[in-house]
Amino acid sequence: MHNYKRRSIRVPRSRCNNAGEGLHEMERRYRVRDSDYYQRRNDIIGNVLLGSVIAGVVVSSLTLFVGSKLSVYAEANEKQFVALQVESVPISPDESTIQTLSESIVQYATVPEYEFLNTLDDSLVQSIPIVEEDIAKVEEEIPIEEAEPEEVSTTVIFPSVEYIKKDNTHTYTEEIEFDMESLLRTYNETYSISWDDKGTFNTIATIYDFLVNQMGVNNRIASAICGNTYYEGIFGMQQKTYYVASSLDSLYSLSKSDGGIGCVQWTSANRKTNLKNFYKAACEIYPDDFQSAKIMAELALIYTEIQDYKLFSNLNSAYSVENATGIVAVRYESYNGCELDFASTKGVYSLVRQNSNGALRLQMAYNIYKYFGDD
User: Fold this and answer.
1) Is 172 helix (H, G, I), strand (E, B) or coil?
2) What pLDDT, in 10s, does the model give residues 146-198?
3) Tell me: the pLDDT tens digits for 247-280?
4) Which residues contact 132 (CB under 8 A, 6 or more apart)?
5) Which of 33, 136, 167, 273 has a Cα-to-Cα distance from 148 of 20 to 30 A?
């Protein structure tokens, strides 16, 4: 752009007819030149302003156009993604399983646009970067914590019942905790043992399991108790001939005064009364399962009596099998001739008569001790 400035004008006289005419002519020419400059400047400024306005309109139009195109493209991509999800879930708009879809899938799967999903170009669906291999890989990388199963307690509490002690005083027993599920498995197991002449080892095995594994009784003491019990009876047996079959039969049999009942053949009046109380409590726990009731009642009474009779200073003490068998035979079972079979020297019992009832009981105690594993 030229930088035009107003300046003084000198016109040579040689170029004009007269001085006055030349001066006026030159001044007119320069005025015209200055007016042209200002006109061109104004035109340029006007063109710039007009161009800015046009550019703004164009940019706004392009923005709206591009924005609408992007919105359409985004919506199409979303529908393509939904189409892939719907394709992997075999549902129709009327099926209840549609509830398991995400909200974005449901809003398309439950409207008429669902038909549009079926018409999508396969190439568009395939272009979505989601493949089964990737999903499987992600599932492998994410550790799935499995919920731990809740422990179901099989413990049954035998309640406190009225009990007549050996010295004829009355008291109430302490509650006893039973794992009846374990005891029933032991009782119902099939045993094939060469020295089990009576075929009643299931009773012995259940008594041993209860005393050692649930009551913490020393295994030699438990073997001695089981060795003596083997030659007495089994659960629910009455005088070796009649077997109690139901809770009503048990209460009827226990009301009679003659004959021994149960695995240790409870015979005296007080012991039968105790057994009746224990049976009644067990039958309340198992009104429709007499097998469980008789096992629980008799095991509870055995454990209560061996503590009441003070047979051992400590049920966890390591007595010898022979000494423990003699103690149970003489001071608990008290069968005919027991004092002839075992003799006590300074409180320690030993077998003194071979080929006797005591000898059979001692041999059975040894067999049981070895069968379940010695120390």
Assistant:
1) strand
2) 767 666 677 999 999 999 999 999 999 999 999 999 999 999 999 999 999 99
3) 877 777 777 657 889 999 999 999 999 999 999 9
4) none
5) 136
Distance between CA atoms of 220 and 321, rounded to whole angstroms?
A: 5
Taking the CA atoms of 350, 352, 355 and 356 in sequence, report the sign of the dihedral they define: negative
- β-partners of residue 348 are 345
Write the burial class of residue 196 (CB in 10 Å: 0-12 exposed, 13-18 middle, 19+ buried).
middle
What's the whole-number mean pLDDT along residues 355-365? Answer: 97
159, 165, 169, 174 alpha-carbon torsion, rounded to 10°: -20
Quick one: pLDDT at residue 335? 94
Please report how many Cα atoms fall inside a 13 Å half-sphere around the Cα of residue 260, on the Cβ side. Answer: 16
Question: What number of H helices and E strands is found in the chain?
Answer: 14, 8
Residues in the chain: 375
Query: In whole angstroms, what is the distance from residue 338 CA to residue 349 CA?
Result: 11
**pTM for the whole structure:** 0.61
Cβ(364)–Cβ(230) below 8 Å: yes
Strand partners, 343: 350
Token digits for 197? 């002449």
Cα four-point dihedral sign 32, 34, 35, 41: positive
Average pLDDT over residues 79-88: 49
Strand partners, 79: none
What pLDDT, in 10s, does the model give residues 25-58?
A: 555 555 545 556 566 666 777 666 676 667 666 6
Tokens 């703004």 belong to which residue? 56
Judge whether 301 and 332 are in contact, CB under 8 Å: no
Give the count of beta carbons closer than 10 Å to the beta carbon of residue 180.
20
